[in-house]
Design brief:
With 582 residues, this protein is of the alpha+beta class. The chain has 3 domains: 327 residues, no CATH class; 120 residues, no CATH class; 117 residues, no CATH class. The strands form 6 sheets. Strands 8-7-6-5-9-10 form a 6-stranded antiparallel sheet, sandwiched between helices. It is elongated, with a radius of gyration of 28 Å. The mean pLDDT is 92.
């Protein structure tokens, strides 16, 4: 590919976008939503992901049904990747610095309405617990915010080399991108059925197969699970119940809540919207009502259950029934209730009805007899039941019940100005080689394909300027850790690290990736030293010379030599914020 295909980097917005393709912070993806799906495609063409197909864990998976595939992929991800969102991995930045980067081409007031660390308060749960304290930012002044960079599958897998980690790791956007790619490569689910959903505090996927499926961090959530009232479903529901969806990303394009333009296919987005709303809505049944009471535990005390034991009617509070769920394989649902009751000690039952409680038996008859009616009509029937529960309390319960059985997701409005970008043609029957060729063959007309090469770090096919800018501007961890050491000491440390990149062939790691995972090719080590030098002295000039199997760094009469296996030839001059690459 001729580098002249790339848009002129003299435009600062374009340079920031392409440079962001390497660091992929939450902020950068929010500002440049067209970076989201290239990460999925970069994972799709990764040899690491294709090696999963050869793992015995996935033997014969292509012949299985959707639910089996999803569960198998889920378990593999759970076993091999943990959720990681600490502040030390990718370091910190400041609100002022980020505003300075983006203020010329983004309304910063709108940013504050949509980004949790700039004042967003959409999720009352996080607001109530103090979001800065929740993420460990309370020890810093209010201007400090985390980078929270999204990891490629290579970086996620490389966490096993990081101290105190035994497996791979990643934050929520990384995991959602990995899930999407794995569902395609391993699960053979078409990309057209996979939608990425970003909210200010979370990222998850919705897959429009069967009844639908949500991937949530390392877990999956089916429609039945969404309404089962467990703590897992409560956590899964939080983002879509409380937060505004900022971005929906798809192979056809994206839609952003704040941008007038959208590139996603309009019909695909309408289908996604309808499918998601159907997934988030259920009819009121006895099972759903029991699940609701499990979900909103404050209402359990309103009910009791009547059963027959040894020829006598006995009564037990619903609270007590739910307590026994915790130590039993059975639950309170009608189909399991009889087995659960057999495990309960006799002294837990009363011989007379419990005063002031509604009989669950009567409730279930009301629900059965009013199928197809709306909640207002069913609520009126509840008022007729004995139990001496105040009308106001029942009305409050039905308000919460309505929210439980129907979530209205705050997704971007569809009244946008739609464009139709070129995209690579990719199918589940393609090999990795086929997909790579489809991406390479479409870079001249498809920015999605071009950005994929940048995210993938295919350095022999892309311009190096955005990469060098990202390496120097946004890799603070190695600098902070090594700033107090002499260049000679840093060189000794770098030379002692394994001469092994986390990226294969013609691909390069950033300085903080080298430092976090304690390994790197000679080019990567030299660039890390350049990062430290420039950030230590903004007026410094550093020269890098890369010649096939060697990489050298010249600075102030110092010269440091490294060995490389990447087979590049480049000369790079870095002087403050100026970069010259030949």
């Amino acid at each position: 590919m001729d580098s002249r295909i790339i848009t002129d980097f003299s435009d600062r917005k374009t340079l920031e976008k392409y440079s962001s393709a390497f660091t992929l912070s939450d902020m950068e993806i929010f500002i440049f939503p067209d970076l989201f799906y290239p990460l999925v495609l970069a994972n799709i063409i990764s040899p690491i992901l294709w090696s999963w197909r050869d793992d015995p864990w996935f033997s014969g998976i292509e012949k299985k049904g959707f639910t089996y595939k999803a569960n198998r992929i889920k378990q593999y991800i759970i076993q091999n990747y943990i959720f990681n969102l600490d502040l030390s991995t990718w370091g910190l930045t400041t609100k002022g610095r980020e505003i300075g980067r983006f203020r010329d081409f983004f309304d910063m007031e709108l940013l504050k309405q949509s980004n949790a660390l700039f004042g967003y308060e959409g999720d009352k749960y996080y607001f109530d617990i103090d979001i800065r304290k929740h993420f460990g930012l309370d020890k810093f002044n209010s201007d400090v915010i985390p980078y929270w960079k999204t990891e490629t599958i290579e970086a996620m897998t490389a966490f096993r080399h990081k101290e105190n980690f035994t497996t791979g790791a990643g934050e929520c956007v990384s995991l959602s991108s990995l899930y999407a790619a794995a569902m395609f490569v391993v699960g053979r689910i078409p990309l057209e059925k996979i939608f990425l959903i970003a909210t200010p505090l979370h990222s998850q996927n919705f897959i429009t197969e069967k009844e639908g499926l949500i991937t949530n961090n390392r877990r999956i959530v089916t429609k039945n699970m969404w309404f089962n009232g467990t703590s897992l479903s409560e956590k899964a529901r939080r983002a879509l119940e409380n937060e505004k969806v900022t971005i929906v990303s798809h192979i056809s394009g994206y839609i952003h809540t704040l941008y007038k333009e959208a590139t996603i296919n309009r019909k695909e987005y309408d289908y996604f919207s309808a499918s998601l709303r159907e997934f988030l809505t259920a009819d009121l049944t006895n099972l759903i009502f029991i699940n609701f009471l499990r979900f909103k535990s404050k209402y359990k005390s309103m009910f009791q259950f009547e059963c027959e034991c040894t020829g006598k009617n006995r009564y037990i509070s619903l609270e007590k029934l739910f307590e026994y769920e915790h130590t039993s394989k059975f639950n309170v649902s009608a189909e399991n209730r009889a087995q659960l009751i057999k495990e309960i000690e006799g002294e837990e039952f009363d011989l007379s009805p419990l005063p002031g409680k509604i009989m669950l038996n009567d409730v279930e008859k009301v629900i059965d007899n009013n199928q197809g009616k709306n909640l207002v009509e069913i609520e009126k029937e509840f008022f007729k039941l004995n139990g001496q529960i105040p009308v106001e309390t029942i009305s409050e319960m039905f308000t919460d019940l309505a929210l439980f059985i129907s979530t209205d997701p705050k997704i971007p409005q569809s009244d946008k100005e739609y464009t139709t970008p070129a995209i690579p043609v990719i199918s589940t029957g393609d090999s990795r080689h086929d997909i790579m060729n489809a991406i390479l063959g479409s870079v001249a007309k498809s920015e999605l394909s071009l950005l994929t090469l940048y995210v993938y770090r295919q350095m022999d096919k892309i311009d190096w300027l955005p990469f060098i800018k990202a390496a120097i501007d946004r890799n603070p961890v190695c600098f902070n850790d090594l700033n107090d050491k002499s260049l000679e000491d840093i060189y000794v440390i770098m030379s002692a690290l394994p001469n092994e990149s986390i990226y294969d062939y013609k691909r390069l790691a950033l300085p903080d990736e080298v430092w976090n995972f304690r390994r790197g090719d000679g080019i990567e080590k030299a660039l890390l030293m350049a990062d430290v030098i420039i950030n230590r002295n903004k007026g410094a000039e550093v020269n890098l010379k890369i010649d096939h199997k060697s990489a050298s760094l010249d600075y102030d009469h110092h010269k440091f030599e490294f060995t490389s296996i990447k087979q590049f030839r480049k000369t790079i001059r870095i002087s403050g914020n100026s970069f010259e690459i030949k």
